[in-house]
Amino acid sequence: MEKTFEFADNVVGFMIKEEIDQEKMKEILSKIENRLEKIRPICLYLEDESDEGISLGGFFKAVKFHFSHPEDLKKIAIVTDDKMFKKSMKIKDFIVPADVEAFKKKERMKAMNWVMI
Predict the structure, then answer these.
(1) CA 46, CA 33: separation in Å to the nearest integer?
(2) What angle do CA 115, 66, 11 make, to 5 degrees?
(3) In whole angstroms, what is the distance from residue 15 CA to residue 28 CA?
(4) What is the C-alpha separation between 34 and 52, in angstroms, rounded?
(5) Measured CA distances, 96 to 14, 26, 49 (Å)
(6) I need a labelling partner for 101 at 20 to 30 A (CA). Which of 30, 48, 92, 94 fits?
(7) What angle separates helix 22-36 from helix 56-68, to the nearest 10 degrees?
(8) What pLDDT is stored for residue 91 in this prediction?
(9) Lowest-pLDDT choice from 19-28, 36-45, 46-55, 95-104
(10) What does pLDDT average to over the chain?
(11) Helices 83-95 + 56-68 axis angle, to 10
């Protein structure tokens, strides 16, 4: 289960309480595509509340989405204490044009401020 919220028209946030596998990533990307119908580019805030991280399938689904929407995501803030999830997002930062930054949970407010600027 996840909570979805908006900081502004161009900032969408997700707070996820389970591993981000292919199915969960499909749900998230569907909501992102709905927002992209109204405004482009957008920024994304993603908080991993469970610390279960992202599965390999979920990661590749996200990368595939970014290749098909190279100019649609401007910034992505990842908030997690899962070390592998943070490292995977750093790798993705080299692959996709969006500016990706990983934050610890205690840096949640810093992440929210960063993604909005």
Answers:
(1) 15
(2) 25
(3) 10
(4) 26
(5) 20, 18, 24
(6) 30
(7) 20
(8) 64
(9) 95-104
(10) 86
(11) 30
- Residues 96 and 80: their CA atoms lie apart, in Å, by 20
**Contact yes or no for 50/17 (Cβ under 8 A):** yes
96 Cβ contact partners less than 8 Å away, ≥ 6 residues apart? 63, 66, 67, 70, 73
pLDDT of residue 93: 58
9 vs 97: CA distance, rounded Å: 21
Indicate the pTM of the whole model: 0.87
Q: In this predicted structure, what is the pLDDT of residue 15?
A: 93
Identify which of 28, 64, 30, 45 has the alpha carbon closest to the alpha carbon of residue 102: 45
Rg over alpha carbons for the chain, rounded to the nearest Å, is: 13
As given in the structure block, the two tokens for residue 20 are 């981000």
Q: Indicate the pLDDT class of residue 2, thresholds 50, 70 and 90.
A: low
